[in-house]
Structures are given as C-alpha cells and as structure tokens.
Write a structure and sequence with these properties.
- The protein is mostly helical.
- The chain has one domain (2-34).
- It is built from 2 helices and no strands.
- It has helices at residues 2-12, 21-34.
- Helix 1 packs antiparallel against helix 2.
- The longest helix is centred in the C-terminal third of the chain and has 14 residues, at 21-34.
- It is flat and about 25 Å long.
Length: 35
C-alpha cells in the first residue's frame, strides 16, 4: 500500500525529487517491512 502510494507520489514529483528517489525508496521499503 505504501509502496503504491510512493510510486504515485514519485510520478508527480519525479523531476523535483530525482535526487531522493533511492533514499526514499529504501526508507519506504524498510518502513513497510518493519510495520
């Protein structure tokens, strides 16, 4: 669920958040696994 939300959010701010793509990707990945 969070992953799908992240993908949707990423598409909207892809150019702005390009630098944070991988860091936020790992953050949401671990957050989803731990929760």
């Amino acid at each position: 669920m969070l992953f799908s939300y992240y993908l949707c959010l990423l598409q909207n701010v892809e150019f702005t958040m390009a630098r944070w793509d991988i860091p936020f990707g790992f953050y949401f990945f671990y957050f989803d696994v731990l929760s």
